[in-house]
Design goal:
The chain is mainly β and 256 residues long. It has helices spanning 52-55, 248-252; strands at 20-27, 30-42, 45-50, 66-72, 81-87, 89-90, 93-94, 96-101, 104-113, 144-149, 163-169, 182-186, 197-201, 215-225, 240-245.
Protein backbone atom coordinates (compact mmCIF):
# COMPACT_ATOMS: atom_id res chain seq x y z
CA UNK A 1 0.00 0.00 0.00
CA UNK A 2 1.34 3.43 -0.92
CA UNK A 3 1.69 5.72 2.05
CA UNK A 4 2.56 9.39 1.66
CA UNK A 5 5.63 10.64 3.46
CA UNK A 6 4.91 12.80 6.51
CA UNK A 7 4.96 16.52 5.77
CA UNK A 8 8.16 18.44 6.38
CA UNK A 9 8.44 21.50 8.55
CA UNK A 10 6.67 24.36 6.85
CA UNK A 11 8.57 27.63 6.59
CA UNK A 12 5.62 29.40 8.20
CA UNK A 13 5.68 27.26 11.36
CA UNK A 14 5.44 29.72 14.24
CA UNK A 15 8.42 29.49 16.55
CA UNK A 16 6.19 30.01 19.58
CA UNK A 17 4.79 26.50 19.10
CA UNK A 18 8.26 25.03 19.63
CA UNK A 19 8.59 26.61 23.08
CA UNK A 20 5.99 24.35 24.70
CA UNK A 21 5.96 20.63 25.37
CA UNK A 22 3.54 18.13 26.79
CA UNK A 23 4.46 16.94 30.28
CA UNK A 24 3.42 13.46 31.44
CA UNK A 25 3.93 12.46 35.08
CA UNK A 26 4.80 8.97 36.30
CA UNK A 27 5.54 6.86 39.33
CA UNK A 28 7.93 4.33 37.92
CA UNK A 29 6.22 3.11 34.75
CA UNK A 30 2.70 3.99 35.93
CA UNK A 31 1.28 7.04 34.15
CA UNK A 32 -0.47 9.61 36.35
CA UNK A 33 -1.42 12.90 34.66
CA UNK A 34 -0.58 15.15 31.76
CA UNK A 35 0.14 18.87 31.80
CA UNK A 36 2.03 21.57 29.89
CA UNK A 37 5.49 23.05 30.16
CA UNK A 38 7.89 25.28 28.27
CA UNK A 39 11.61 25.87 27.80
CA UNK A 40 13.57 28.71 29.39
CA UNK A 41 17.26 29.45 28.78
CA UNK A 42 19.52 31.45 31.01
CA UNK A 43 23.00 31.66 29.58
CA UNK A 44 24.15 28.14 28.70
CA UNK A 45 21.61 26.50 31.01
CA UNK A 46 18.28 25.08 29.89
CA UNK A 47 15.22 24.63 32.10
CA UNK A 48 11.77 23.15 31.84
CA UNK A 49 9.10 25.33 33.44
CA UNK A 50 5.73 24.04 34.59
CA UNK A 51 3.30 24.44 37.48
CA UNK A 52 4.54 23.27 40.87
CA UNK A 53 1.38 21.23 41.41
CA UNK A 54 2.28 19.17 38.33
CA UNK A 55 5.38 17.89 40.16
CA UNK A 56 3.90 17.61 43.65
CA UNK A 57 0.42 18.23 44.99
CA UNK A 58 -0.18 17.41 48.63
CA UNK A 59 -3.99 17.88 48.70
CA UNK A 60 -4.51 15.37 45.86
CA UNK A 61 -1.64 13.09 46.97
CA UNK A 62 0.03 13.50 43.60
CA UNK A 63 3.66 12.42 44.02
CA UNK A 64 5.31 11.53 40.69
CA UNK A 65 8.96 10.53 40.67
CA UNK A 66 9.68 11.39 37.04
CA UNK A 67 8.22 13.19 34.04
CA UNK A 68 8.38 12.66 30.31
CA UNK A 69 8.40 15.39 27.68
CA UNK A 70 8.17 15.11 23.92
CA UNK A 71 10.98 16.53 21.79
CA UNK A 72 11.21 17.21 18.07
CA UNK A 73 14.31 15.57 16.61
CA UNK A 74 14.35 16.47 12.90
CA UNK A 75 14.60 20.10 11.71
CA UNK A 76 13.28 18.99 8.31
CA UNK A 77 10.32 16.99 9.58
CA UNK A 78 8.24 18.26 12.49
CA UNK A 79 6.38 14.94 12.64
CA UNK A 80 9.45 13.18 14.07
CA UNK A 81 9.71 13.20 17.84
CA UNK A 82 10.95 11.22 20.79
CA UNK A 83 10.12 10.96 24.47
CA UNK A 84 12.67 12.27 26.98
CA UNK A 85 12.49 11.20 30.62
CA UNK A 86 13.51 13.53 33.47
CA UNK A 87 13.87 12.23 37.06
CA UNK A 88 12.39 14.43 39.75
CA UNK A 89 14.50 13.18 42.68
CA UNK A 90 18.08 12.21 43.41
CA UNK A 91 18.81 10.38 46.66
CA UNK A 92 15.38 11.42 47.88
CA UNK A 93 15.98 15.15 47.29
CA UNK A 94 13.89 17.02 44.70
CA UNK A 95 15.71 18.17 41.58
CA UNK A 96 13.27 20.96 40.84
CA UNK A 97 13.06 24.40 42.41
CA UNK A 98 9.92 26.18 43.55
CA UNK A 99 9.38 29.64 44.92
CA UNK A 100 7.96 31.30 48.01
CA UNK A 101 7.02 34.87 48.75
CA UNK A 102 5.31 36.71 51.57
CA UNK A 103 1.93 35.28 50.57
CA UNK A 104 3.09 31.66 50.48
CA UNK A 105 3.96 29.13 47.80
CA UNK A 106 4.17 30.15 44.15
CA UNK A 107 2.68 27.62 41.75
CA UNK A 108 5.70 27.60 39.41
CA UNK A 109 8.55 25.09 39.29
CA UNK A 110 11.67 24.72 37.16
CA UNK A 111 13.90 21.73 36.60
CA UNK A 112 17.20 21.89 34.76
CA UNK A 113 17.62 19.81 31.61
CA UNK A 114 21.00 18.23 30.98
CA UNK A 115 21.81 19.46 27.48
CA UNK A 116 24.38 16.69 27.01
CA UNK A 117 21.66 14.08 27.50
CA UNK A 118 19.39 15.51 24.81
CA UNK A 119 19.11 13.65 21.51
CA UNK A 120 20.99 15.20 18.62
CA UNK A 121 19.54 17.10 16.99
CA UNK A 122 16.80 18.45 19.23
CA UNK A 123 14.49 21.09 17.77
CA UNK A 124 12.95 23.55 20.23
CA UNK A 125 12.80 27.24 21.06
CA UNK A 126 13.35 28.66 24.52
CA UNK A 127 12.36 31.90 26.17
CA UNK A 128 15.18 33.92 27.73
CA UNK A 129 15.30 36.82 30.21
CA UNK A 130 14.94 39.12 27.17
CA UNK A 131 11.38 37.84 26.73
CA UNK A 132 10.30 38.67 30.28
CA UNK A 133 8.12 41.68 30.95
CA UNK A 134 8.54 43.61 34.21
CA UNK A 135 5.35 44.20 36.21
CA UNK A 136 5.41 47.85 35.08
CA UNK A 137 5.83 46.82 31.44
CA UNK A 138 2.81 48.67 30.11
CA UNK A 139 0.47 45.67 29.70
CA UNK A 140 -3.08 46.99 29.81
CA UNK A 141 -6.17 45.28 31.16
CA UNK A 142 -8.08 43.70 28.31
CA UNK A 143 -4.91 43.16 26.26
CA UNK A 144 -5.04 39.97 24.15
CA UNK A 145 -2.70 37.13 25.08
CA UNK A 146 -2.32 33.44 24.22
CA UNK A 147 -2.03 30.36 26.41
CA UNK A 148 0.13 27.82 24.54
CA UNK A 149 -0.42 24.33 25.90
CA UNK A 150 -2.12 20.95 25.92
CA UNK A 151 -5.67 21.28 27.33
CA UNK A 152 -6.95 17.82 28.31
CA UNK A 153 -3.85 16.53 26.52
CA UNK A 154 -5.28 17.75 23.21
CA UNK A 155 -2.70 18.68 20.55
CA UNK A 156 -1.64 18.05 16.97
CA UNK A 157 -0.72 14.39 17.39
CA UNK A 158 0.89 14.17 13.95
CA UNK A 159 3.22 17.14 14.38
CA UNK A 160 3.41 16.96 18.19
CA UNK A 161 2.56 20.64 18.59
CA UNK A 162 0.48 22.46 21.21
CA UNK A 163 -2.59 24.59 20.60
CA UNK A 164 -3.23 28.21 21.52
CA UNK A 165 -6.21 29.46 23.49
CA UNK A 166 -7.06 33.12 23.18
CA UNK A 167 -7.30 35.10 26.41
CA UNK A 168 -7.31 38.65 27.69
CA UNK A 169 -5.71 40.23 30.75
CA UNK A 170 -8.50 40.33 33.33
CA UNK A 171 -6.84 42.13 36.24
CA UNK A 172 -4.40 44.97 36.60
CA UNK A 173 -1.06 43.65 35.32
CA UNK A 174 1.66 44.33 37.86
CA UNK A 175 -0.80 44.48 40.77
CA UNK A 176 -0.70 41.22 42.70
CA UNK A 177 -4.29 39.99 42.67
CA UNK A 178 -5.52 39.74 46.27
CA UNK A 179 -1.88 39.99 47.35
CA UNK A 180 -0.86 36.82 45.52
CA UNK A 181 1.91 36.59 42.93
CA UNK A 182 -0.43 36.20 39.99
CA UNK A 183 -2.68 38.12 37.63
CA UNK A 184 -5.92 36.96 36.05
CA UNK A 185 -6.76 35.98 32.50
CA UNK A 186 -10.18 35.55 30.96
CA UNK A 187 -10.07 32.40 28.84
CA UNK A 188 -11.60 28.99 28.39
CA UNK A 189 -9.06 26.56 29.85
CA UNK A 190 -8.99 22.93 30.91
CA UNK A 191 -6.97 20.43 32.91
CA UNK A 192 -3.71 19.74 31.13
CA UNK A 193 -3.01 23.42 30.47
CA UNK A 194 -1.28 23.87 33.83
CA UNK A 195 2.27 25.09 33.24
CA UNK A 196 1.55 26.66 29.85
CA UNK A 197 3.19 30.00 28.99
CA UNK A 198 0.98 33.08 28.80
CA UNK A 199 2.39 35.23 26.01
CA UNK A 200 1.83 38.46 24.13
CA UNK A 201 3.02 39.13 20.59
CA UNK A 202 5.67 41.83 20.15
CA UNK A 203 5.15 44.35 17.37
CA UNK A 204 7.25 46.89 15.50
CA UNK A 205 10.64 47.94 16.83
CA UNK A 206 10.04 46.07 20.09
CA UNK A 207 10.22 42.77 18.18
CA UNK A 208 13.81 43.45 17.15
CA UNK A 209 15.31 42.61 20.56
CA UNK A 210 13.78 39.19 21.04
CA UNK A 211 16.48 36.86 19.74
CA UNK A 212 14.16 35.57 17.04
CA UNK A 213 11.24 34.85 19.38
CA UNK A 214 9.01 37.93 19.10
CA UNK A 215 6.84 37.27 22.15
CA UNK A 216 6.60 38.61 25.68
CA UNK A 217 6.46 35.92 28.34
CA UNK A 218 4.01 37.35 30.85
CA UNK A 219 3.11 34.44 33.06
CA UNK A 220 2.69 30.74 33.77
CA UNK A 221 -0.88 29.47 33.61
CA UNK A 222 -1.81 27.68 36.81
CA UNK A 223 -5.49 26.98 37.35
CA UNK A 224 -9.03 28.13 36.89
CA UNK A 225 -10.44 30.49 39.51
CA UNK A 226 -13.94 30.09 40.90
CA UNK A 227 -16.01 31.32 43.84
CA UNK A 228 -17.48 29.26 46.64
CA UNK A 229 -20.83 31.05 46.49
CA UNK A 230 -21.53 30.06 42.87
CA UNK A 231 -24.72 28.02 42.43
CA UNK A 232 -23.56 25.19 40.15
CA UNK A 233 -27.12 24.76 38.85
CA UNK A 234 -27.76 28.42 38.06
CA UNK A 235 -24.38 30.07 37.53
CA UNK A 236 -21.76 29.36 34.93
CA UNK A 237 -18.12 29.13 35.97
CA UNK A 238 -16.31 32.46 36.03
CA UNK A 239 -13.97 31.56 33.20
CA UNK A 240 -11.10 33.32 34.98
CA UNK A 241 -7.64 31.85 35.50
CA UNK A 242 -4.54 32.44 37.62
CA UNK A 243 -1.28 33.19 35.78
CA UNK A 244 1.81 33.57 37.96
CA UNK A 245 4.14 36.39 36.98
CA UNK A 246 6.96 35.00 34.86
CA UNK A 247 9.63 37.18 36.47
CA UNK A 248 9.82 34.52 39.23
CA UNK A 249 11.93 32.60 36.71
CA UNK A 250 14.82 34.97 37.33
CA UNK A 251 14.83 33.87 40.98
CA UNK A 252 14.32 30.17 40.28
CA UNK A 253 17.14 30.01 37.72
CA UNK A 254 19.67 32.20 39.56
CA UNK A 255 21.50 29.42 41.42
CA UNK A 256 24.99 28.33 40.40
Amino acid sequence: MFRAAPPKVAPMLETILLTSTRVDTFVGQAALTNASGFFFERGPRLFLVTSRHVLINMPTRHFPDRIEIELHIDPENVAKSTVFSIPLYRNGAPLWRQGLDGAGAIDVAVIEIDRAALPQPTVFRAFTPNNLTPPDGGVEIGAPVLVIGFPLGFHDTLHHLPVARGAVIASSFGLRFEGQGYFLTDARTHRGASGAPVVMRLRGEEAGHDGGLPWRLLGVHSSRLDVNVRDVDLDEALGLNCAWYADILMTLTSFA
